[in-house]
Design brief:
With 171 residues, this protein is mainly alpha-helical. Strand 1 (60-61) and strand 2 (64-65) form a beta hairpin. The longest helix is centred in the middle third of the chain and has 27 residues, at 89-115. Helix 1 runs antiparallel to helix 5. The chain is globular, with a radius of gyration of 17 Å. The chain is built from six helices and two strands; from the N terminus they run ααββαααα. Strands 1-2 form a two-stranded antiparallel sheet.
């Protein structure tokens, strides 16, 4: 049995793979959001139901399903490293992911404490985002760039403000 050489797969390739996987999960959740029947692949129990979460009032932002926004995020993450005009694509990916982090965490809290049901695929997408964040920060550092504290604080503050506004507009 051949063991994969760590150098054989680059961080960039792993980020792209995670983005593709996330895009497919979000595509499935988009389909779940729009279909009229219930009982999806990830409806495991009353407390673990994609349908419950994905059809709740919290499943949209300004009328746009979160799953579609998730598709856009993962598509952008997959494309950014290949756009030549973007000078620091991994820094952009890290900041984009940090912008989404407060919103994603607030949705986890809503699932647990307000809806009483967890969307397994939604939570798995957050694990993918965490992996993308870690790898994009490593790749940023490898290219001699650093995330500035002011950048991180700014995007986290903006993400938190957006998450709070969305909660209060829909609750």
């Amino acid at each position: 049995m051949r063991i994969l050489n760590r150098d054989a797969v680059t961080r960039s390739e792993v980020i792209t793979g995670l983005a593709v996987l996330g895009f497919f999960f979000m595509s499935y959740l988009t389909w779940v959001h729009f279909r009229t029947t219930t009982s999806s692949l990830c409806d495991l129990a009353p407390n673990f139901s994609c349908d419950t979460v994905n059809k709740s009032v919290f499943s949209t932002v300004l009328g746009i399903p979160l799953a579609i926004l998730g598709q856009a995020y993962f598509l952008l993450v997959g494309l950014l490293p290949h756009i030549k005009e973007v000078k620091k694509p991994y820094q952009a990916i890290a900041l984009l992911t940090l912008l989404n982090a407060p919103f994603a965490l607030s949705l986890s809290a809503i699932e647990l404490f307000y809806l009483g049901s967890v969307c397994v695929f939604c939570e798995f997408s957050k694990v993918l985002m965490l992996g993308i964040l870690a790898l994009s920060v490593e790749e940023t550092n490898a290219h001699g760039h650093r995330l500035k504290l002011s950048q991180v604080a700014g995007v986290l503050a903006a993400g938190t403000a957006g998450a709070a506004a969305n909660f209060f507009l829909t609750a």
